[in-house]
């Protein structure tokens, strides 16, 4: 006969309430859900009204009580933030309890420490909800794609910014009011700067990179730009040039051109930035809160994972899947002290970020210049001098006697691009760089 498995929820906000709603209503879902029982729940405010019905005696404002409760077998951390979340996860591991977390901020920064502690304690820490909301991407990277040599993982991995960009592009909606909608819909982080400044996407690409390439990277070294400085004018110009603008995160294997690097460490180029996407590219049709992750590997080629990237239901779906994985193993009751190596997933190699000047990509740049003869030619010469090949150069309507010149380059290193831009901004006719985005 199956034993009940006690679930301790750290948090009953958007995601926690979504998880409780599934566990409260097991009918027609996986039979193991019927064996899961919410045993204790930590919140900040006992009096806040909740969208799920729970016995009020289960609630506490002391999250340690949840971790320490003898009836809690699996700890589900959905409170967010770095602390006390990290300490509570470590405490649960030390108590021999498996953990499920949606907290990409903690995993991107402390994942190595947490994974090592979990391996030593013989427990699992599962993180499917930390990237891509409801999209299964963590377990596929750990298990289903394990036979591949991954070359590149890229995509749209922040629902809030994709929702904002889609509504701005399709409805001409105002940035601030759409951000407010995203917060009300439960998509945004507690501090939405994490979304709009690209930090959440950087956390997620750090996690995906670690799984895809088999080793952690330095989260703080990821070049990151968000959408808070993106101007609607660039979205309009991109549309006229047959592109959409998406906040893209990329992690790829590259050569490291700097001679003295450690040959045993895998060089990676990782970045987050607003990027022009050709309108016929698969990522161009990913709109609203949806996310999409492209994984390119040998021999599979390219696969795309697509679906809702944030929100209560989709994220709770991923959390409950992780709980079920742990519950399934507990129900087998054949624990020999060894963890399932695919589910636990641990590093097998060193990886390092290459210097960002070595990152190669196409670029979109908008210059404001005097509306003077010959300026386009001089800009072109500066690019040519640095070996930067231009795909297109277009002058848009001048305003107040200033011209707007938009350049799309072929693929070039960030170092060469930086040198060309320094030379261009030194030209007397050039007033400045109004925008610099990536381009697929
Ligand atoms: P949220 O709505 O702000 O909920 C946070 C919950 O944690 C609230 O119930 C809050 O209590 C409780 N809490 C926070 N600090 C606490 C403390 N010190 N002691 C006790 N309780 C505390 O956040 P969320 O959107 O559910 O996100 C939770 C986590 O999931 C975050 O790591 C987030 O990045 C991640 N995530 C979210 C989504 C999404 O779509 N929202 C998707 C994927 C991953 P009160 O309710 O009393 O304030
Ligand atoms: N704030 C995050 C987003 C939640 O918008 O993608 C899902 O991780």
Question: Mind explaining what this structure looks like?
Answer:
With 440 residues, the protein is an alpha/beta fold. The protein has three domains: 5-137 and 313-348, NAD(P)-binding Rossmann-like Domain (Rossmann fold), CATH 3.40.50; 145-307 and 351-356, Dihydrodipicolinate Reductase, domain 2 (2-Layer Sandwich); 359-439, 2-Layer Sandwich (Alpha-Beta Plaits), CATH 3.30.70. It contains 14 helices and 17 strands. Strands 7, 8, 9, 10, 11, 12, 13, 14, 15, 16 and 17 form an eleven-stranded mixed sheet that branches. A six-stranded parallel sheet has the order 3-2-1-4-5-6, sandwiched between helices. Helix 13 runs antiparallel to helix 14 (414-425). It is elongated. The mean pLDDT is 95. L-homoserine binds at residues 133, 158-160, 187-189, 195, 200, 309-310.
């Amino acid at each position: 006969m199956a034993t009940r498995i006690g679930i301790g929820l750290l948090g009953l906000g958007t995601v926690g309430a979504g998880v409780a709603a599934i566990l409260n209503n097991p009918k027609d879902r996986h039979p193991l859900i019927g064996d899961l029982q919410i045993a204790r729940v930590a919140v900040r405010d006992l009096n806040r009204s909740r969208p799920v019905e729970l016995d009020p005696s289960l609630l506490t404002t002391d999250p340690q009580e949840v971790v320490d409760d003898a009836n809690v077998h699996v700890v589900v951390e959905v409170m967010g933030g770095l602390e006390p979340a990290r300490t509570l996860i470590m405490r649960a591991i030390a108590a021999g309890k498996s953990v499920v977390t949606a907290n990409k901020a903690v995993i991107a920064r402390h994942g190595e420490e947490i994974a090592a502690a979990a391996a030593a304690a013989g427990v699992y820490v599962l993180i499917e909800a930390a990237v891509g909301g409801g999209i299964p991407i963590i377990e596929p990277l750990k298990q289903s794609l394990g036979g591949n040599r991954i070359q590149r993982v890229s995509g749209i991995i922040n629902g809030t910014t994709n929702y904002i960009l889609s509504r701005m592009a399709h409805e001409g909606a105002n940035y601030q009011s759409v951000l407010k909608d995203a917060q009300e819909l439960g998509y945004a982080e507690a501090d939405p700067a994490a979304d709009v400044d690209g930090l959440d996407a950087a956390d997620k690409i750090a996690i995906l990179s670690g799984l895809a390439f088999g080793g952690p990277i330095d989260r703080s070294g990821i070049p990151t730009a968000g959408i808070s400085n993106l101007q609607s004018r660039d979205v309009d110009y991109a549309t006229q040039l047959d592109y959409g603008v998406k906040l893209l995160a990329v992690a790829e294997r590259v050569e490291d051109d700097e001679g003295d690097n450690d040959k045993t460490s895998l060089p990676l180029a990782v970045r987050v930035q607003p990027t022009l996407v050709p309108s016929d590219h698969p990522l161009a049709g990913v709109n609203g809160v949806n996310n999409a992750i492209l994984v390119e590997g040998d021999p599979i080629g390219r696969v795309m994972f697509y679906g809702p990237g944030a929100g209560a239901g989709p994220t709770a779906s991923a959390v409950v899947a992780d709980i079920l994985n742990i519950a399934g193993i507990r129900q087998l009751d054949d624990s020999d002290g060894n963890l399932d190596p695919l589910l636990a997933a641990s590093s097998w190699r060193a990886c390092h970020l290459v210097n960002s000047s070595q990152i190669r990509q196409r670029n979109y740049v908008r210059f404001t210049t005097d509306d003077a003869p010959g300026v386009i030619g001089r800009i072109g010469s500066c690019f040519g001098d640095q070996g930067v090949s231009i795909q297109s150069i277009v002058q848009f309507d001048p305003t107040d006697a200033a011209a707007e010149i938009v350049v799309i380059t072929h693929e070039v290193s960030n170092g060469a691009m930086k040198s060309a831009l320094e030379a261009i901004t030194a030209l007397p006719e050039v007033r400045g760089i109004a925008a610099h985005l990536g381009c697929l």
